[in-house]
Amino acid sequence: MALLHKVAAQLMRQIPSSKAFGLAGYWRDLDRLDSADVALVSFPKSGRTFVRVMLARLYQKQFGIDEREVLKFATLREAPLAVPRILFTHNGDAMRRPGKIAINRKAYRGRKVVLLARHPGDIIVSRYYHLRHRSLDPARQRLAQQPLEDFIWTKHGGIPSIVRFLNQWKVLSEQRGDILILRYEDFLSKPELTLRALSDFVGLKSSEADITEAVEFARFDNLRQKEREGYFSSGRMGPGRAGNQESYKVRSGKSGGFRAKLSPDEQSRVEAYFAKHLDPSFGYSGCSPLIVTAVHRGLAAETR
């Protein structure tokens, strides 16, 4: 089955279309899931690079794995068995319509899962600028040429798709005891505490000093400077287009910034949609947030 997934991904990369581009990533990740211990799942533009860099620093401290690769899965796959193999995945293409978003439950069976959640308003605005300045896919570039207030409601990965994605993982987390939900916002406001929860769940043995140092290493200004200096060997870090300052991966380290990009009327429409459709336990629609799942009940109580 793993070979089938790999061949399918390779074939899809040869087809010049946006849909094939998304399917190639999906089949690639299915192949990698077969040998992963942990999957960190997020909708694109949920801030996973920031989290990934912190975690890469912890792996470097404990196992000597070069943090400049930012946890390249091919390296983890060949590492000693004591190294937790963590796969960062979007569980499919962000261009999917809401009705096409579904979790392949069988693929995630037998491995721990971390859902990295982020406010859908911030996700969609970040995605808009990503497609405008970093995407190499013409169809995705064209999608982001429309006004932002139209883009956020697009059928191809707009707010309805993001909400469905988050809700589906929340439902699955209630059915399984090995899914941890962490919010990007808590990595900003309580970085040490939230990184500790992630480190423990993955199975690392990180000291308090390691956690503090990893948080400092991934501090926004430091991370932005390292990206511009070419510190990271990973292709995911660096400008999407040479000479375009807006095309760097690290653009902003804020939460709630989407509101400044929308008119008051559009803000109200967006907030009303979240209140009606998004699971309230995420804390993005005016109630107490779910910081983590029952796996870390003590931490959840401490951080509310």
TrEMBL record:
GO MF annotation terms: sulfotransferase activity
Keyword annotations for this protein, in alphabetical order, are: Transferase
KW Transferase (keyword) present: yes
In terms of InterPro entries, this protein maps to: P-loop_NTPase (IPR027417), Sulfotransferase_dom (IPR000863)
Query: Which family is annotated?
Result: Belongs to the sulfotransferase 1 family.
Upper lineage = Bacteria, Pseudomonadati, Pseudomonadota, Alphaproteobacteria, Sphingomonadales
Residue span of region Disordered: 231-261
- Where does the Sulfotransferase domain start and stop, copy by copy? 37-279
What protein name applies here? Sulfotransferase domain-containing protein
